[in-house]
Predict the 3D structure of the following.
Amino acid sequence: MYVAVKGGEKAIANAHRLFAAKRRGDAGLPGLSVEQIVNQLSFAVDRVMGEGSLYDRELAAIAIRQAQGDLIEAIFLVRAYRTTLPRFGYSVALETAEMRIARRISATFKDLPGGQMLGPTFDYSHRLIDFALDADAPAEEPARSASGAEEMANIPRVIDLIGADGMMEEDPAPREDGSVGDLTREPLDFPADRDLRLQNLARGDEGFLLALGYSTQRGYARTHPFVGEIRMGEVEVGFFAEELGFEVTVGRVTVTECQMINQFTGSARMKPKFTRGYGLVFGHAERKAMSMSLVDRALRWKELGEEAGAAAQDEEFVLSHSDNIQASGFVEHLKLPHYVDFQAELDLIRTLHRDAETRAEGATNREAAE
Amino acid sequence: MPENMPLTETSEIDARRRAMRTLALAAPEALEAAYAGFAGLPDWHFARRPETGLVMVRGRIGGGGGPFNLGEMSVTRAAVTLATGETGHAYVAGRNQRKAAIAAVFDALWQNAGLRPRIEDEIIAPLGAARDDADRRGAEQAAATRVDFFTLVRGDD
């Protein structure tokens, strides 16, 4: 039960003032600029864009600054902002095969057409804190190689290399009626098709998906995964403008794509072949894209005739709990006044105690009488 | 694209789309400088004032399959009409309304047959060259991180 509670206005105003001072911190230090956050905290920006489900670097940086680095709070701010904007429509589907590659690796093939491009990565670093890092010093100019650079927007997909031999499942065809589910328009309903599942996972909480993906590796819905390919880079976004009558390029987005290759022993309907889990996320977000692809594959158990029983396979469980804004809203609402609810519970416990005491007294009196 | 559309019109649309793409991908500062430096700009007014909204970006299931909704991006659109009558449009990523307005002005100017060569030479060509340079730099930096595998000779003699 909820009741209106009056009072506390002054306390709230002062708390907000105190909080604003906490945000600013030591006034003797320079304040953070949005450009600094965009440039120097790019992974935080990318996470807020992905889970805020709104690609806009500057906006994500403003939200991160306002939220004092609390990324879920920043995601909340971005989600709230998007509800104030009109939607112009849907883009033409991205062609990740035409990505301008910044990084591309495969764990399944060493020598593959186009090669392995490590790009900018945490991998192979020693994870030692660099106490001597001079944040103001310019970075060394990145190395450049003219050889092989011209093909960087035309790197073949790894899965097509084995797909040609019929050993790899094909990409699913669009629905015949051309419809595409959109959970920002209609509430999620179960069972959900793969388009809706992928939309949900793409904006889902990285930590939640990481834990679920990890659980599949530890034996809960084991899918024997291999990273067929991770690619990260820029893709152009096309939009069909009604008033023009043709498609225009509005810009580019950086995305991370993961093709997770999994074993499949075959079924009555299908020959044994490799299957795939798919991950696609805004920005440079490999951990998220990999987790998404593991969970996507686990959720396909029914279609592939596999046994169910693990959390990561439970579509309703996964899709209903992946959104960190919904989740934190419900968890954190517990902080709001529940005085009347609690008073009712307190009265109940008091009554039960009284009843128990009455019974105990009655028993003692009976014993005494006997 | 209707099949009976004359070829010349198709190629004109393609040329306009290429120019609009270059404007959309240009840095806002570069567009500002190009606008400020353009001599003999005709008067213009907004046919549609700049408006920021969202486009739902679609991915493809498995990378090449049917579409799914990945997430939205901010996009700003504008339309301007020149004193000479042409109407230009712009749809550009982000919330920069000046960028959208300037891109729409250049799209309008591009449609003026007399001005088109100037727009192509003075605006589109340098913006396209700047984008190509940046793309080449990015590609060369990625190419420098390409792994050259080599097998160590094993000493089993």
